Amino acid sequence: MALAAPQMKYGENNGPVGGVSPPIPTVTAPSGSLYGGSNLLGGNAKLPDVNAQNAEVKNPQLVNGQGADAHLGLYLNMNGVKKPEPLRGDYGSTDTGPRTFEYEKLNPDLFAPPGTDKGSVPNAMWPLGLSHNRPGYKGKAGWARQQNTAVLPSAKKMAGVDMKLAPNAYRELHWHTAGEWALILKGCARIAAINDENQSFTDDLCEGDVWFFPAGIPHSIQAFDHGVEFLLVFDQGDFDENGTFLVSEMMARTPREVLSKNFQADVEAFKDLPKDELYIFNGTPQPKDIKLQNTTAPGGFLTGNGSYSYHWSQQNAHQVPGGSVKILDPSTFPVASMFSAALVTVAPGAMREMHWHTTSDEWDYFLQGSGRATIFAAPSSGRTFDFTGGDVGYIPQADAHYIENTGTEDLIFLEVLQAPKFSDISVAQWFSLTPKQTIKDHLKLPDSLIDNLPKEKTIFKVGNKNLTALAGGGKAY
Predict the structure, then answer these.
(1) Which is catalytic among the residues 172, 268, 415, 456?
(2) 184 shares its domain with 277
(3) Which of 230, 252, 333, 369 satisfies CB 3.0 to 4.6 Å to 411 for a cystine?
(4) Are residues 443 and 397 in the same domain?
(5) Mean pLDDT, to the nearest integer, of 228-233?
(6) pLDDT tens digits for 39-83?
(7) Is 219 one of the annotated binding-site residues?
(8) Has residue 269 been placed in a domain?
């Protein structure tokens, strides 16, 4: 048991590197010097044998499509080899230097980018698996991890938090300076809130349901018997979950004399207040009958257009060739006046069609599967990013993009806009509704392509499940 545990192996280069030849010899006493002498300066030192060392990989193993024309931009499944190489067509070179192969396998379009990538595009991807995971109060109550501009600087308009509450645990009573839109990923929870019109609200939500609390509205969240995990989206890019207004801290920072006067109670009533913030903590099971916790408020109970929740799980998805989608925006969930969202499922081989959004940045969360997107930024930059489950994506307003399913299973992701209506511009529809002569004069496209363009948005484009079919003379669709 006292032996050192072996280091985890993620796949990496080994052997001599940077002038070090591991393993270094074991010594029992100091030897040698920390510094070299002036005899090692250029012009003084002995010239090295430049043929004695090698930075090239012999017989590199390539994956399907890696030798094809770089401008085809085929998806390269790097999982097919032990040691991937940054080669695409006639571009790139092998890599014998410091590496962790798993990063490159997860991000093949950064490691061996399509020949169509150009210029500089701000990073558009952050894996929540790299976010610091903050545990709740002692007792294994839950955790939370976040993405904001501290880790994804381009995400200036929205931030996200992935939070888990253990069975019957609470997210402490609190409020924010930002609006909070939430999607339940797993399990069920009871939410409660009041507003500034003397109205109260309580509801039970499960997987696929949504809530929204406007800035400043105090609320609580409690998991049911099997726990709950949910995604929070805030309308401030620099929002920090650690900066929430907590009821425990408010009470702790207020003089006891003031508490006694405010609540018209003896000061002894406050002797058991928490000494530390609760944040996420274990609670007693709530009654299953929600009516037992529906407090009658002077202004009544929030319902209808004033409701803070929407049972999105009960909405049927719109299904078309290539995938399905359902939309939630203020037309059906009025209280979330600037949150518009689409829950998108893309079939293998298909893609969310090329488009852009006219008035809002796009915040994405990938729930399942794998995909990629090329982001075109004016005037002439483009970069391709890869996404897997648990990743956040961020695409600035008006930047054209698509999202292609690069896996063998369905790709599921959430697309969130800060807009009063979910809308986009379809590139294919734009071309079809523009005079044919104009398109031909600009792009020299053949009549057969233009005549086949749909007048309606298709949302998805179906495709060949073999993403390297073009390399063998096949078709992409």
Answers:
(1) 415
(2) yes
(3) 369
(4) yes
(5) 98
(6) 999 999 999 999 999 999 999 999 999 999 999 999 999 998 999
(7) yes
(8) yes
